[in-house]
Prior knowledge:
binds nicotinamide-adenine-dinucleotide, six-stranded parallel β-sheet, 15 strands, 26% strand, 12 helices
Amino acid sequence: MINVGVIGLGMMGGTHLDVYSKLPGVQVVAVSDANPERLSGKSRAAGNVEGQAKGAFDLASPSVKKYAEGMDLIKDKNVHLVDICLWTPLHLPYAVAALKKGKHVLSEKPMARTSAEAKKLVAAANKGPGKFMVAQCMRFWPGWTWLKEAVVNKTYGKVLGAQFRRVANHPGGSFYENGAMCGGAALDLHIHDTDFIQYLFGVPLSVSSTGYSKITGEIDHLVTRYEYADVPLVVAEGGWVMQPGHGFKMEYTVNFERATAIFNLANKDPLTLCENGQAKPVALDPKMGYELEIAYFVDCINRGVKPSIVTPESALDSVRIVEAEVKSALTKKPVKLKA
Ligand SMILES: NC(=O)c1ccc[n+]([C@@H]2O[C@H](COP(=O)([O-])OP(=O)(O)OC[C@H]3O[C@@H](n4cnc5c(N)ncnc54)[C@H](O)[C@@H]3O)[C@@H](O)[C@H]2O)c1
């Protein structure tokens, strides 16, 4: 049995607690939030994706220890796995403290507020002995794991063009309004697509971005073209500047030599494959990416292996690529990346 402690009971903490409450072989023994209403379960954060933060976990259970400060949960000897769902600038200090105590650590994306901080976390993660993974959930998302397999196996030939889109109205709240904390939509939201593009095609040779700031003082809406030697067209749009009512859109269109794959989270069947003159839905695992992500991390702990789907180095690269995108948007020039 793996004993879990969750720090930060907001939208993501609530989502992870839901997952642990259903996953065999784990039990939540401790939770932490600086906000007493959240710690008691009186106030709950809502999710932006259907199925997120449903409140399936009973925070009132007497078997769960409650800490107002996350560092105190990290000191709890009964906790084996520390799950960090804190604001982005807190990922580094809390993950490093937990790793130093020998805990396993699952830490929310982005890995850190800056690539310089992320590098420090890579060093701490590689010292062990605990296992470490950044929760880059798209690498586990049904329909996106399908895409990874199709690209790796060249099932439909090579990729000619890939377009990703993740656009929403602003989630609100002091963290998401504060650019110094959240890094704008570029680092907070769009990183999901940057990360997945890197997972599919590697670190790009360069990025060319255009975008603007509206809410946070950081880039809140951008479009990036990622340059690769062997994939002619890779672009992604990300932003949280739409008017209320727009909702959360998560889409891709990937054009292979012999088929076109279209993913739209809003559809009843999110993934459609156009092949041989027909458009057909693709059957997908009904689980959420968060469930598959946490089940994978727990399995790595049980098997005593380092997670290979999201390595510390690749999570750092995603922060590095986003920083290049922001630089490109601000300077209006392409930015080269060293692989
Ligand atoms: N993977 C995803 O799809 C996804 C989605 C949303 C957010 N996130 C990431 O998750 C992180 C958290 O986002 P959120 O929306 O859940 O934020 P949130 O504001 O809803 O929750 C964060 C919680 O941390 C608590 N907290 C702050 N300092 C603390 C401390 N020292 N000890 C204990 N608790 C403390 C706050 O009181 C708050 O309740 C961010 O880094 C965000 O980028 C990931």
